[in-house]
């Protein structure tokens, strides 16, 4: 046999590289929209207890932006997040004197929170807490 008569070896079997491991490290930006309500009633400090009402609800739509950063080491993720929301929460309450009506509104609010979580496969299970 001559070299030209020899069969070519089979092509190597192609093995796709494994997918990269997911990581939760890095910055992120997001938006939120939703609704809110507070069924606890209103309180006006300008006229003392005479204007306090225990009935009434404030309701409305709110939405805003958030920005944060996570850092993952092994299966643990720590992070921080800040957000700012505009709000259309408003309501009216009857005063206890039976004559006046109290109004209240929340025009905007923000939060600053810390995050601690664990990676479960490609999901992140976390808890967060902070200040508004």
Detailed description of the structure:
The chain is rod-shaped, with a radius of gyration of 29 Å. The protein has strands at residues 26-38, 58-73, 76-94, 101-120, 123-131. Helix content is 0%, strand content 58%. The chain has one domain (28-131). With 132 residues, the protein is mainly β. It contains no helices and five strands. The model has no long low-confidence stretch (mean pLDDT 83).
In short:
The chain is built from no helices and five strands.
Draw up the topology in text.
Elements: E1 26-38, E2 58-73, E3 76-94, E4 101-120, E5 123-131
Antiparallel strand pairs: 1-2, 2-3, 3-4, 4-5
Order of helices and strands: EEEEE
> How much helical structure, as a percent, in the residues?
under 10%
Secondary structural class: mainly beta
Total separate domains: 1
* Mean residue pLDDT: 83
Shape: rod-shaped
Low-confidence stretches: none
Query: What is the overall number of helices?
Result: 0
Strand content: over 45%
The major pleated sheet works out as:
5 strands, antiparallel
The N- and C-terminal alpha carbons lie at a distance of 84 Å
The largest sheet has its strands arranged as 1-2-3-4-5
The Cα radius of gyration reads 29 Å
How many DSSP-defined strands? 5
